[in-house]
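User: What would this chain look like folded?
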Amino acid sequence: MHIKDVAERAGVSVKAVRYYEARGLVSPRREANGYRTYDDADVRVVREVRALLSLGLTAEQTHPFVECLRAGNDRADVCPASLSAYRDRIADIDTRIAELTGLRGQLADLLAQAESYRTPKEQR
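Assistant: Here's the prediction, encoded as structure tokens.
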């Protein structure tokens, strides 16, 4: 199948498929006329990558999942490298939550101080 067919079946744009190809996530075959040719396995990879990107993984971080699928597994997340990628993403999220919690605390303190501040006119 051609690139527009893969994009349609996977629910992404043609541009996204080209991006995944540029990142080495999809490797289409070439016809004699130079056109890219994809198969059902490529559709599955594109769907998986799209889902992983929606979880905040980078294209680079999806490689273990793609390799797991290409190794013939029914799921992309059953291989040790995929599990490690999940753990890394969770750690990234935990770090971000801690940063945001700290920022929230600082902002709440500043708000409380600002709300309790009385201007010199109000103090009379």
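The domain at 3-116 is CATH 1.10.1660.10 (Multidrug-efflux Transporter Regulator; Chain: A; Domain 2). If you want, I can go into more detail on any region.
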